[in-house]
Amino acid sequence: MRPLFRRLMNNRHRSWSIARRLFGISLLLILLQSVISSVVTTQLRRHFFHEHLEETLSRQIVSSYNVISDRLDQLSVDQAYACCSIDDYRSWLEGLSFENGKAGLIIGAAGLQATRDADRFYGTTELSRYAKDAIASSSGFTVDEADEDVPLAVKAVKLPGGDQTGFYVYMRPVYSMPLVRTLMQIKLVSELVLMLALAVALLVGLRLIFRPVRRIQSDLAGIELNRLESAELSSRDRPREFQPLLQEFNGMVGRLRRSSADQKQFASTISHEFRTPMTVISGFIQSVLNRDEGLRVQSRDALMLANREVLRLNRMLSDLLDLSRADNNQLKVLREPFDCLTSFREAFHLAQAAFPGNTITVNEHEFETPVWAVGDPDRLVQCLKNLIGNSVKYSELNSAIELHFEVQGECVLFSVVDHGQGIPGDQQERIFERFQRAEGVTLRRGDSSSGLGLSIVKMLMEGMGGGVRVESEVGIGSRFILTLQRSLL
Amino acid sequence: MGWIGLWRWPLLFAPLLLLTSCTQETLPGASPVETQSIDLRITEPPWEPQAQMSRRMKHLTTYLKASTGLTVKYIPAINYDHSYSMMERGHADLVLVGVYGGYRLLKALPNARPLVVQKPSYRVVMLARRRWMEKLDSGEEPSLASVKGRRVGFGSRFSGSTFLQPMLALQEEGLDPSVMAHCTHEPVQRHLPIQVANGLLDFVFVPSFNDQQDHFVPESLRDELAVAWIGTPRRNDYVVALDRPDDSQRKEQLRLVQEAFLNLDRSSLDGRVVLNARGFPGYELPTPEFPQMTNQRLESLLAMYGGRPICEDS
Predict the structure, then answer these.
(1) Spatial strand order in the sheet of A411-417
(2) Count of domains in chain A?
(3) Which among A174, A262, A324, B242 could disulfide-bond with A268, CB atoms 3.0 to 4.6 Å apart, if both were Cys?
């Protein structure tokens, strides 16, 4: 009981679909309409068929009834007073005969007398039952449907006089009933087919109706945060119902774009304006450190720390400036043939100098001749430096870092391998987004991360026509792979 | 003491009246219980299907009971002759008749007298197929003369409204019945229109009792049938009562019944139901013109035919 309740409660919060509801309700309405139509048709058929039969019989009975009433009209007074015996009934029916199962009879105080040949089709008990049923009905008419294929229509008319004269009853089989039934079956089948066709048409119709919604959904999915200038959705050829929604959306995009432009401008200005004083500060610190040999140890350490922080701040400003330029389409990334092996070696040497505590190994000696790739040599070095810096930052102190250079067909691969914490599988995509860091991955004490490094690597590599990806296992380590197109020059 | 108070006196002697009626002859099928409570018996020639006759009589007897306090029992008749003979043999005290029945009873029974007569509203109507009417040449009007060489249907050979009245009309137009190619009788007048619709007859004569000339035509046949000719407004129906000169109680009963018939109007529900069922505007007292003068005309018509006229081939 409890799991069912929980499931129900969970279902309450499930998203629902307008299309499904519309389809369900429409289908229900179609079904309801079909059922009501069938019931009404059946009732109408029964009513009108009975009415038609009654009218037909009322007409048909007249000629034979007139024969009998004319005979009664000619009875002498004495005959009228002596009336009636079964012989009287017989004499009144004299000469009346019917074909094809039709029959007439008189039923009254003297008994029952049927027309000639009636006994070929009906027994006396049957005739008596049919007659009594018709007499008992308010209109004097019944349809006996004991035989479903050929029901019997029966009409009873009181003969002039009291109980002694009785009723004249006329009956005829309804041979057209199977045809009527077949027609009803055809109608039922056609109604089912129609219902099915309607359901399919409804399904197709709904797909057509919701096509604009799907188009908008697809357009919205294609919007990139850093390309808000092309994020506005055109209201041309869109349904009228969506126009206000699109207008509102485009208005919102405009506001976002303005806000984003302001932020970028702010970041660009800040980065640019901060760099000059930072360079000056760093220059003076370097100068003091280099020229003044009489500095106390504590002062030297303090100045060195300050210098490192200034350099870190400078790097961050460079990153921000790059992003800002990229957003404003002002970032210049070359796509030209260059010796990528030289850049790879440069990055290696820079890393060795920057992280002397770490053992950084490289396989570049396997390659004797220059390897040409398409891209920007400085940006490649920047990317490799960035990755090596990350590897050092997220690994144990003095942990080994491996650099691999590889040529695979038309591609050149640069790998940075560490033996650090590793990145969970579900985080490996989002670490390349701006200001995103893998959850559960910790930095060493004193280290910090802006969350921009990998997004800049991705941006630069894609700018060079290459790419970046990661292969990682938690607790084992990570391998970041940069790819560039090989140049055949 | 007003007249209302006066007519209440016989009610005090109701048990005595009932005892008296016990001595009267009963018809086969009538229960002794019913006979004991009967004050008067009424009959009518079966000119309509019995079910409709019984229904209409039920309205009338209910009305008479309510307005006079008298129990009037309807005795169904097998045919016209039977209904007349009931009066002659004392099995009925009142009879609703047409001109022929009234003529015959008034002539045969000295104690019979017309109690009330129908207000002039009867007209004899000749029906034909609408298609036949539409095929007539322009300027050609259907008339009584159209029956020449045609198949014509009348009511019972004992009917005034649908046989003798049309015969009188034909006589007035100088037409002899022999001009018709075929002539037939249909006692149930309601069945006459359907015979034309079924193509068995070309013309039929039916009565009309009000302004709606085709009220006798069933709704389902209105599209197929049309009025080809219509007679002048006359009277046809009246009530004949059997009087007993020495019987003051009978006299009083008949007076009450007469008054009830004369008071019939459409202002009350009972009256409306009775008049609607018969199609009459109402009843009035007999006039020197009707039925006396009409009977004289019938007398001469019957004399001309040497008795009751008959269709040639019926």
Answers:
(1) A360-362, A401-408, A411-417, A477-485, A467-473
(2) 3
(3) A324
- Answer yes or no: do A76 and B28 touch at CB < 8 A: no
Tokens at residue B170, please? 């034909």
Alpha carbons B153 and B143: distance in angstroms, whole number: 16
Give the CATH number, domain containing residue A303. 1.10.287.130
Instruction: Determine the structural domain holding residue A394 and report its residue range.
Output: 336-485
Q: How many CB atoms lie within 10 A of CB B222?
A: 12
A207-233: buried (b, 16+ CB within 10 Å) or exposed (e) per residue? eeeeeeeeebeeeeeeeeeeebeebbb
Could you report the per-residue pLDDT of A229-274, keeping only the tens digit for each? 788 888 887 888 888 888 899 999 889 888 877 877 787 787 778 8
- The tens-digit pLDDT sequence of chain B (314 residues) is 334 444 444 444 444 434 333 333 333 333 444 445 899 999 999 988 899 999 999 999 999 999 999 999 999 999 999 999 999 999 999 999 999 999 999 999 999 999 999 998 889 999 999 998 888 877 778 899 999 999 999 998 888 889 988 988 988 888 888 889 998 888 888 889 998 998 889 999 999 887 777 777 888 888 999 999 999 888 999 999 998 888 999 999 999 999 999 999 888 888 899 998 888 889 999 998 999 998 998 898 888 888 877 775 54
* Token couple for A155: 């009409």
Interface check A64 vs B, CB under 8 A: no
- Cα nearest neighbour of A82 on chain B: B28
Interface pTM, i.e. ipTM:
0.77
H or E, element range at B273: helix B269-278
> Which chain B residues touch A if contact means CB-CB below 8 Å?
27-29, 46, 49-51, 53-54, 75-82, 85, 156-158, 185-188, 191, 194-195, 197-198, 200, 220
Shortest alpha-carbon distance between residue A89 and chain B (Å): 13
Q: How far apart are CA B256 and CA B203, in angstroms?
A: 42
Q: Is A258 in the same domain as A386? A: no
Short-list B99, B58, B63, B105, CA closest to B81? B105
CATH code of A132's domain: 3.30.450
One-letter amino acid of A110: A
What's the pTM?
Answer: 0.56
Domains of chain B from N-terminus onward: 3-120+235-290 (3.40.190.10), 123-234 (3.40.190.10)
Residue that the structure tokens 């003969």 belong to? A159
SS3 string of B148-180?
CCCEEEECCCCCHHHHHHHHHHHHHCCCCHHHC
